[in-house]
Amino acid sequence: MSLQFQTIWDWIFLAFGLAVLIQLIYFWLVFGKFAFYKPPTRKKIAIPVSVVICAKNEYHHLKKHLPLILNQDYPEFEVVVVNDASDDETIFLLEDLDRDYEHLKVVTIEKDLNFFKGKKFPLALGIKSARNEHLLLTDADCEPASDQWIAEMAMGFNENREVVLGYGPYFDSPGFLNKIIRYETAFTAIQYFSMALWGKPYMGVGRNLAYKKSLFLKQKGFISHYNVSSGDDDLFINKVARKSNTSIILSPQSFARSRAKENFKDWWWQKRRHLSTGKYYKTVHKLILGGYSLSYLFVVLSLVLFLISGNFILWAIILFLTRLLSQIILFKFAFNKLEEKKLLLISPLIELIITLIYPLMVGFNLVSKDSRWK
Fold first, then answer.
1. How distant, in Å, are the alpha carbons of 78, 150, 153, 221 from that of 129?
2. Per-domain residue ranges of the chain
3. Which of 204, 205, 227, 223 is nearest to 371 (CA)?
4. pTM of the entire structure?
C-alpha cells in the first residue's frame, strides 16, 4: 500500500497519523518528564507555617480532620480557620478546639457576603490574618496522609521557591464514578506536575497548595479574577507561578486526601465549576492543554471513520495500539508515583468517557453560570 493522497481518505489518514504522533510526543516528552522523575533528596526545615482553611457548614468534616492538622508533628505552625457564615454547629466546634489548641486561630464572617463569588473573599481574609510568611492551603474535607504533611510540604520552600505544588487525591471507594473522579484527578496532576517540571507551571489544587504570603500580597491576591467564582487555586497559580519560583512535592506523606462525590449530579456541578476557569489561563497553557485533548479526540473520531468505511483499518489499528501502549506504560509509572491503584487498565475507557463529557460541560457553562462554592 502506498500513499499518493488522491482521495479524501488519504488526507484523513495523514492527519490521523500526525494526531497520533502529537499524542506520542505528549506521552513520552511531556508526561514522561513526570513519569520518570526522581524527586531530589530534601532536608527537613523548620520555617514557621500558617495552614489556612475556609469552612462553610463543614462541622462534620472539621470534627474529623481538623484535629489531624492541629496535631501535626511540626515545630512551629498555626492553623487559621475561616468560618464563612456557617449556620451549622461549626462555631461551637471551633470554640471548643480554640480552648484546647493555642495555635488555632478562628476568623469568623458573621454575614453571608453574597456579592462576592465563591470562597476567594474568605480565603483572602484568612491569608491576611495569617501571621507567618509561608502558607499551606487545604480544604475542610481534606485529610492529611500523615503527621508529616506540613513538614513535607514545607520542604518545597527556599529563598527562591515561592510556590509549592502538592497532590490532593481522593479516597478509593466502590463504584465507577469514583474511578472516573480519581482518574481525572490523577491525570490533571500528571499534567500540572509535568508542566512544572518543564518550567511551565500553570495550576495547583487548593486541597494541597503552598505559597508565600508576600507573593499573594504583591500580586494583590485574587483581585484580577474576583469575578470568577472558581479559580482561587489554579487561576492564582497560573498568574504567579514561574520556572524559577515553583517546586513540587510528591512524597506520599505529603498528600491531602478527600472523599469524592458520590453521585453524578454533584460531580457534574463540581467539574463544571472547575472547567469554567480554563478560558482564563495564559494562551500558551491553553494551547498545550488543548493540543492534547483535540488531538486525542481527532484520533478517536478518525479511527471510528476508518472502521466504518473500511479504509486503512490495519494501519489505523496499529497506530492506535501504539498510542494505547504508550499511554499504559507512561501512566503505570505516573500512577505509581501518585499511589493510584486499580485505575491503569481501565484508564483508556475513562479517558474516552471524559473526552465526550467535557464538551457538554463547557457547552452548559456557556449558557448558564453557577457561583456557589458550597
1. 11, 19, 21, 13
2. 8-37+284-367, 49-262
3. 227
4. 0.93
